[in-house]
Amino acid sequence: MKKPLLLSFILSLIFQIFFAQESVNDKAMSLVNSDYFHTYKIEKFSLHTNKTIYFAGEKIWFKAYIAEDDSNTAFTESANIYLNLYDANFKLVLSNLFYAENGKTYGELELPETLENGNYYLQLDTQWNKNFNRQAIFPIQIVDLSDANTVNINQEVLSETINLTKFNEGKESFEIYRSDANNDNAIAFEISSKTKVINKLDNTYGFAVLHREGSLRAMAPIKFNKDKEIYKINFAKNDALDGLNTISIFNDNKEILYSKNFYIYDKNNISLNIIKDEVSEDSLTLNFNLYGNTKMANISVSVLPEETIVYKNQSNIISDYLIKPYIKNDKYNTAMRTINYNEKDLDAITQLEAKNNLFVYNTLTDKNTPYASEGGINLNGKVTTNEKDLSKYKIMLSSPDNKITALTEIDSDRKFQFDKLLLNHPTKYNLSLINEKGKIEKASFYVYNTYVDYRANPNLNIDVNIKEDLKKTDSLNKISKSTDNLKLPEFYGAQQLEEVSLEVYKEKKELALKQQLKNSGILGLSASRVVKPEDTGFNNTLFLTFLQTLPSTNVVYTSDGTPQLVNTRGPRSINDQINPPLAIVWDGAILQDLSILGFIYADEIDYVVLNINGAGYGSNFPNGVLHVVSKNGNNGEKIVAKNKNVKAFDTTFGFIKPKEKYEIPDLVFSSQRTIDNFSTIDWVPNFNIEPNADNFLKINRRDYDNLKLIINGITEDGKPIYKEQIIKLSSN
Q: Considering the entire predicted model, what is its pTM?
């Protein structure tokens, strides 16, 4: 009888354990599926500018990084990135659109010359981010050179001392401490509780949840026992996120008992070394070596004089990604603290400045995320044609400038729409009506607009805590009389130049251009006039309209409608023809069929060279010659006439295309001191680094011996990189 009784007891115990475990699992799943936690992909942003103090009228050169919140890897669902500029009163000044590829974009933002001295704010934003209102605000200072005597460039950056006495540890129901773990793959924590609280929880289950703003990473069950003082839990290191992490304790009724933040990041897991390689008179080649990582990195580099005063370290990609998005404000200047990483300090900041709502997105549902990601711009229009049935017709959009060809349907109202176009602005595009056989039919088009859904807020919509923090920082830079007698630089041309000096400058520029054209085989340049259409104001017109602006010439038409460019200087002898036609040489080949001139736009032309007498060509061009140098060039091949039924349009909106190389602003410096203090030597927005290999980058040094490099970047697997380094060449 004892064996059956023993077996019955064991089975009963097994069933009790099984059902208890099942109940815990059910409660755990119920908590996981509660409104506390979400699975949204949320963006976060970092902005690297070439400096942080600018002159009105100058360009901001920038690189923007857009990452997925949890992984720090590239956020690829938003291609449309907006860089907005707000003034000291948080009013919108301007908003520009840039195209992000693989979570990165770069470009230039031209500051209006009318901006007054003061503090301004750059904001990175997307349409998708409007669902979450994730703040990405980057302060800059703008100086108006016309009012230089009232400029105060203060290098001080607000940074409060961390006051650990503000902690009221123990007032809550629990306390959580990080402890040493023997396992290199785990992070260990100890949880202690108050006696009164644990008595109420005795013999119940709770859960320690590792998360960040409700993005759940791991969960550990806790069996509460009134006689147990310390509960030890381990989380896998892979479950913890780089930067801020939160541990929240729940009871079995899904009620929060306690939460605490921790800063978890191994600053030694990646190392970027920079080695001088080759030095020339005006350039420097650096060797970038990336250790501790197996993935490629992409970086941006600002090259400044060592004595620069135009760069305040108020932001870097480590603070932007790992801590600033999760705290109420940044009065402790986390950017500076992440350079000399102190885990205790950053732990304290995450606790002192934690947001009141650690589950900030727990009120969101699918119905409350009305803003969709944008991947281009839309274009709407209407077609007019004599064709009555357009059900089998399509509208074709083509743009050689943007390398786009797209087709779309026509609705019953003869309207059409193109979605997700990657159109740069300003550029051109063509529209045509295509029949079912693929041929172009006669039609005209009316384009309503090119648009996106995103609209920048007219007033910067930011958390009141952040706004107050920014105002405190602004107080350091209030306009005041300059006391150091430091003369600011001026834009080239802003000062009054003597007329003779200006003419000499123009003559030198024209001589350099004529030498360039001479090298391409154009003769008689000393007796020619060189004109660049984009300098005349007629670059957005037909080429024939531009030709009407040339001196001593006129455009006439033959009986069959073919245009001719004629010489109006008058006959040189009694036997010469009145108003004879000039020869037109197009990219080195004589243009025979002049009818194609009616389908060419002036902005397709780089230069025209008008040799009204044909000097240098003997009897080849007795009536004069017009050389046309197109931007694309055709290497002497026959020019193909454009179809008259293809209608050309100028963009009214689109992506701003970045320049390939940094351009030095036309600033005139009054002394070497101002050059050292205010200039940017070079800017590299997009450089890839292969891990554990040599990566050579050539930068300008412009005769400087001591350079300051500001580097931000990210690896493919989401490891942020920030480094400041002084390069000294004087010893070489």
A: 0.77
